[in-house]
Automatic annotation (TrEMBL):
Residues 70-97 are annotated as: Disordered. This is IrrE N-terminal-like domain-containing protein.
Length: 97
């Protein structure tokens, strides 16, 4: 999920879906159009993927350092329980004994 959020943060443009392509190019097979678009974007797409991966990693590290609020209720509380949320801070924030 963080990878996709990173694409949005960078403002990366996604390739259109086949329904959109059919509307734009009704006489062409949408797969042919996608293939043609992809051929011109190979290096561009690789760079976008690298940016998204690195950004997602950095976001994940930053999120791991955050301490979630305690005692969440409703939907947020259920989500925290489902994801294994804990009232204890991550290992690197615990007091060493």
């Amino acid at each position: 999920m963080l990878h996709e959020i990173a694409h949005m943060l960078w403002g990366h443009e996604l390739l259109p879906d086949t329904a959109s392509l059919t509307g734009l190019f009704p006489d062409l097979d949408p797969r042919t159009v996608l293939d043609a678009l992809s051929l011109h974007r190979t290096g561009y797409a690789e760079r976008q993927e690298q940016q998204a991966e690195m950004t997602a990693s950095l976001l994940g590290q930053a999120i791991d350092r955050l301490q979630a609020p305690r005692g969440l209720s409703g939907s947020l509380g259920r989500l925290q329980d489902a994801l294994g949320g804990s009232d204890e801070p991550p290992d690197d924030h615990r007091e060493r004994r």
